Amino acid sequence: MSHVTASASVSTARPRAAAALGALYRLVLRTQVTVPRLLGIAALGSLSVLLGVFARWDDDPVQAAADVSASYGLGILVPLATLWFGASALGDLVEDRLLVYLWLKPVPRWQLPAAAVLATITLVAPLTALPLAASALAAGAGEVALASLLAAVLAVCAYAGLFVAAGLWFRRAVWWGLAFVVLWENAAAHASEGTARFTVTSWARSIVSSVPGVDVPLDGRSVAAALVVLPAVAVAGWAAATVRNRRADVD
Fold first, then answer.
1. Is the dihedral of CA 188, 148, 236, 21 positive or negative?
2. What are residue 60's phi and psi, to 5 degrees?
3. How far apart are CA 23 and CA 10, in angstroms?
4. Distance between CA 116 and CA 102 in Å, rounded?
5. Average pLDDT across the chain, whole number
6. Given this model, what pLDDT does residue 91 score?
7. What is the mean pLDDT of residues 130-147?
8. CA-CA distance, 53 to 213, in Å (whole number)?
9. CA 63, CA 68: separation in Å to the nearest integer?
10. How far is CA 228 from CA 42, 54, 79, 180, in A?
11. What is the pLDDT of residues 140-188, one digit of tens each?
12. How far apart, in whole angstroms, are the C-alpha atoms of residue 119 and residue 26?
């Protein structure tokens, strides 16, 4: 009898946990979707398509399209767009001292960071990956489009985990994240092979470099490894955010 009762409790708890996670996910989406943010990311995405049109006139359109995807798309568009949404997903609640109201809800501490990461991916992935794929198609490099799409989505996942965690760990996380994108993901990544191995952009660029006849900077990693490392970074960021969410004092 006790076994049946325990099984019934577990089966009831699972739908409740899923419902709570879904409610938090929708809440984060509502707070993050604003017209200025959408227009800003759309403008950055449109620029990538314009660069793809110009790449069509290059002597090697396929290589030019890959350069646009790697240098502009994965080096600037994807990290900045994810930073804009991810760092503020929970960071705004911390800054405005509203996180305490979510703490009062009887839900596991891991769910709020998970909802923030999922919401960030939901918003940023289509706003960045689709323009990059369209950029490659505009350049007449269809073979680059699919690789760019996959690389952008996985890079968004990795950055989402990192920047959501940053929003909980640091005050003014957007500025810290901007410094991280400029100094580490771009400047330090080009400084040496050793530092490049510890950047999200280098792993994402390796996926673009899998297109035959294409050579992009910072692509010295295997595609198979990139398909594992980038999701692992997302999970690690979520775990770091969960640790902070469990230990932080909220007033």
1. positive
2. -130, 85
3. 20
4. 13
5. 84
6. 66
7. 93
8. 20
9. 9
10. 29, 34, 19, 22
11. 888 899 999 999 999 999 999 999 999 888 888 889 999 999 999 988 8
12. 8
